[in-house]
Amino acid sequence: MIGPGLGTDPRTMEAVRSFVSRCDRPVVLDADAITAVGADVSVLKGKKGVITPHAAEFEVLTGAPLPRDHVEQEKAVKEAAARLGFTILAKRRIDIISDGVVTKLNRTGNAGMSVAGTGDVLAGEVVALLSKHVSPFNAARIAAFLNGTAGDLAFQRLGYSIMATDVIEHIPEVLRRSLRKLS
After folding, report:
1. 2 within domain boundaries
2. What is the sign of the dihedral through the CA atoms of 165, 166, 167 and 168?
3. Which of 22, 104, 135, 162 has the smallest count of CB within 10 Å of its CB?
4. What's the domain range around 76?
5. pLDDT tens digits for 82-114?
6. Does the global pTM surpass 0.90?
7. Are 77 and 119 in contact (CB under 8 A)?
8. Residues with Cβ within 8 Å of residue 140, at least 6 apart in sequence
9. Does residue 4 belong to any structural domain of this protein?
10. Exposure string over 76-94, b if 16+ CB within 10 A, otherwise e
């Protein structure tokens, strides 16, 4: 994962682009790394991974704002993913995940999660799944569900006072519940 907390100094932005262009593993691009690659998306050519933009970062990445209409948002995310060759996990009230061929929606999560760090937790979950050789698309959709459900549990307990660490604390419970349903 690259991006959170980097800042946008021009030398940092160039270092991010250089890293991505040389990376031979799936990568997760979040926060300031989205700004860096948005300036030169050619560094993504032949690479694979997941990009996790919120609405403003999506515009920086693609040069176009996300439409207001949800169906049009899905179309825009799918087209951008196809064009970039990367899975996009667009962080929204209803997350939109697309690899440019298949698009899935994630309806877990809540407004209480719009606090600093929850996007970093999400990106970390994607990285963890990629490290286990889960495909970028599946890593993004599983992480979105896991993060949102953990956030929902934290919200049930704490309301709007949740922090990113509260989401993290609920991840094991979500995994237990989900795995129990599979067996």
Report:
1. no
2. positive
3. 22
4. 10-182
5. 999 999 999 999 999 999 999 999 999 999 999
6. yes
7. no
8. 50, 52, 87, 88, 89, 97, 126
9. no
10. bbbebbeebebbbbbbbee
Residue 111 CA from chain centroid, whole number: 17
Residue 5 maps to a domain? no
Residue found under tokens 């599983």: 142
Nearest 10 degrees: CA dihedral of 82, 19, 164, 59?
Answer: -40
Domain tally, the chain: 1
64 secondary structure, DSSP code: S
Residue 134 belongs to domain with CATH number: 3.40.1190.20
**What values do phi and psi take at 25, rounded to 5?**
-125, 160
DSSP state of 43: G
Query: Residue 19 is encoded by which pair of tokens?
Result: 């890293």
Residue 3 lies in a domain: no
User: Which one-letter amino acid corresponds to residue 66?
Assistant: L
156's CB contacts (< 8 A; 6+ apart) are: none
Question: For the segment 68-81, what is each residue's pLDDT rounded down to a tens digit?
Answer: 999 999 999 999 99
17 contacts: CB under 8 Å, gap ≥ 6? 36, 37, 39, 40, 43
